[in-house]
Amino acid sequence: MILAAGRGERMRPLTDRVPKPLIEAAGRPLIVHLIERLARAGFTNLVVNVSHLAGMVERGLGDGSRYGVHIAYSREEQALETGGGIAYALPLLGNEPFVAINSDIYCDFDFARLPSVSAALGTGTARAHLVMVDNPPHHPEGDFSLSGGRLSEAGPRRLTFSGIGAYAPGLFAGVTRGAKCQLVSLLKPAMAQGAVSGEQHTGLWMDIGTPQRLAALEQVLQSGQTG
Description:
This protein is of the alpha/beta class. It has a single domain (2-223), classed as Spore Coat Polysaccharide Biosynthesis Protein SpsA, Chain A (Alpha-Beta Complex), CATH 3.90.550. The protein has helices at residues 30-40, 54-61, 81-93, 114-121, 183-192, 211-223, and strands spanning 2-3, 24-25, 28-29, 45-50, 70-75, 98-102, 105-107, 128-133, 144-147, 150-152, 158-167, 196-200, 205-207. Strands 1, 4, 5, 6, 8, 9, 10, 11 and 12 form a nine-stranded mixed sheet that branches. It has a two-stranded antiparallel ribbon with strand order 2-3. Strands 7-13 form a two-stranded antiparallel sheet.
């Protein structure tokens, strides 16, 4: 699943007329960079949730065939936040563990690692696996602590959630379909039960949340040092 329903407030006024996933970097929309990388890693069936300027995203990407994938859309009347958006899309995602990725990141993480991680979520008590990164300047306090491959709410080695994760559908079982829900409200109780694993990605990762960070990505792409 690609999470693409957000309003992109920090990108305004650009996102008043262009949905954030379709903002271009080096001549291609952010979400297309991600889709192409996922396709190379073997992901061929994608679910994209949409809300703000949803029709533009759907028309822009089509059925995904031009990128070698199939795209189904989960349209939200209003953005349901990450947890709510994933819960709303469960009928499209099925009963097996799945991967969900923010559409507004750029990274060189090896997505081909994730199918085996997802499969493991269906065999034990784990409910989620998150990819963590070093804390960027705009988020110095981090999100969760990673120790021994497990994530906890508090601890000495705090890292930032990259927006890349694998999830068991059961994590969202208590969310009313169509209700807003923050993902963190589901992750914290699961962490307390030792049910959230994690790993650290130390390569390229950028959160394209502001015009300044978009400009920084343009520089990276122009340099050709993207992996």
